[in-house]
Specification:
By secondary structure, this protein is an alpha/beta fold. It folds into 2 domains: about 1-175, Rossmann fold; about 195-360, Dehydroquinate synthase-like - alpha domain (Dehydroquinate synthase-like, alpha domain). It has 14 helices and 11 strands. It has a 7-stranded mixed β-sheet, sandwiched between helices. Strand 3 (about 40-45), helix 2 (about 45-60) and strand 4 (about 65-70) form a beta-alpha-beta unit. Helix 3 crosses helix 4 (about 110-120), helix 10 crosses helix 13 and helix 11 (about 265-285) runs antiparallel to helix 12. The structure holds nicotinamide-adenine-dinucleotide (NAD). Nicotinamide-adenine-dinucleotide binds near residues 74, 76, 135 and 140.
């Protein structure tokens, strides 16, 4: 097991991150020895409750910790105010007070919703993250971005509120459908391209050990991603500078998600976005053509799309990019890899060039 301490300067808070295999026993003992609250509420979804929630609940009860489970419906549709209100009401009915704490058990949706609830309930109570999807383990469980969607768009309501602890156990990914693994792998590849050449090589060389049934190499992959995300968040907790580097593939990717009304899963959209943004970087004389080729090859190796469907209307995609909440004054910022393992944020990339590149990667 590896322990990473994420020290947050602004609040002088430390978020402890544990990465390992079979952490449920450790987690229960740890929460017994060093309680986060007098009692715990596991917030999960009904699917994760069946595959993992009941098991975790029993371990915590066995460790002598008073614990309740609150399960919401699985999926993005639960990221709304109605759900949050319902959880508040359940917590009140169960008698949760300011000395209580929460555990987010699930994917990114559960992490975002639980963090949001924890940041508001009784003017904030502590929480821990136990991420159960690959995407949540390598990305969303770290960094304290919480939130819900509004009818007008995703993640429009939220807070920055750091979890006190994060327990990342790659052995609990066994029940995760392959498409959810792929969603996470897109974020893993993104992390490697912008920050870790060694991880990129590991992904190239150990494909089978990462995706086969045993997934021997997955723990190392996840641990590396957690270290990188932790470093980036420590440098820029509020997402005003360096943290934006993690948006590689996301300028085009978010536009594809919105264009298709979120029918294209996040990882697939980010993968198409990475292909387009890698090509863009080469067009802007930054990423060497051979390195761009390696990025495109790696996406294909992991069954991720490196082409944007020809039927997508480029002008509409560009229009969405201009209106994205991350576009400042309508200027489109894009993360461009300089080389594999290093990237920069380019503010205000010419619209015409992006349009040309999207057309180039359509097929
Ligand atoms: N806060 C952040 O920094 C951040 C970063 C990236 C994404 N996000 C958010 O994350 C969300 C997406 O998260 P996600 O991709 O994890 O999706 P998700 O949370 O919807 O989970 C996907 C599905 O997998 C199921 N599942 C979860 N763990 C399982 C397991 N171990 N076995 C079987 N099934 C399991 C869930 O029930 C769900 O149906 C989006 O809402 C996005 O906005 C947040």
């Amino acid at each position: 097991m590896e322990k990473i301490n994420m020290v947050l300067k602004r609040t002088e808070k430390v978020c402890e991150i544990f990465v390992g295999l079979g952490l449920f026993d450790f987690l229960a003992e740890d929460l017994k020895k060093r309680p986060l609250g007098r009692r715990l509420g596991i917030i999960t979804d009904t699917r994760v409750e069946t595959v993992l929630g009941n098991r975790l609940h029993k371990r915590l009860i066995r460790a002598g910790i008073k614990t309740d489970v609150i399960a919401i419906d699985p999926g993005e549709d639960s990221k709304q105010w109605k759900t949050v209100q319902w959880i508040f009401e359940r917590l009140i009915a169960l008698g949760f007070d300011r000395k209580s704490a929460l555990i987010a058990l699930g994917g990114g949706v559960l992490g975002d919703v639980t963090g949001f609830v924890a940041s508001l309930y009784m003017r904030s109570i502590p929480y821990a993250q136990v991420p159960t999807t690959l995407l949540a383990q390598v990305d969303s469980c770290l960094g304290g971005k919480t939130g819900i969607d509004l009818p007008q768009g995703k993640n429009l309501l939220g807070t920055f509120y750091q979890p006190s602890r994060v327990y990342v156990d790659t052995s609990i990914l066994g029940t995760l459908p392959y498409e959810e693994i792929q969603n996470g792998l897109a974020e893993v590849i993104k992390t490697a391209v912008v920050r870790d050449r060694g991880l990129f090589q590991l992904l190239e060389n150990r494909h089978d050990a990462i995706v086969d049934e045993k997934r021997d190499a997955l723990e190392e992959v996840v641990a590396r991603c957690c270290r990188i995300k932790s470093d980036v968040v420590m440098a820029d907790e509020r997402d005003t500078g360096l943290r934006r580097i993690l948006n590689f593939g996301h300028t085009v990717g978010h536009a594809i998600e919105a264009y298709t009304n979120y029918r294209v899963p996040h990882g697939m959209a980010v993968s198409m976005g990475m292909a387009a943004e890698a090509v863009l970087s080469t067009r802007m004389k930054m990423l060497q053509p051979e390195e761009k080729q390696r990025v495109l090859q790696l996406l294909k190796r992991y069954d991720l799309p490196a082409l944007i469907p020809a039927s997508y209307d480029t002008e509409k995609l560009i229009g969405i990019m201009h209106s994205d909440k991350k576009a400042e004054d309508g200027r489109i910022a894009v993360v461009l890899p300089k080389t594999i393992g290093d990237a920069m944020i380019m503010q205000s990339v010419p619209t015409l060039l992006i349009e040309e590149v999207i057309k180039e990667v359509q097929g």
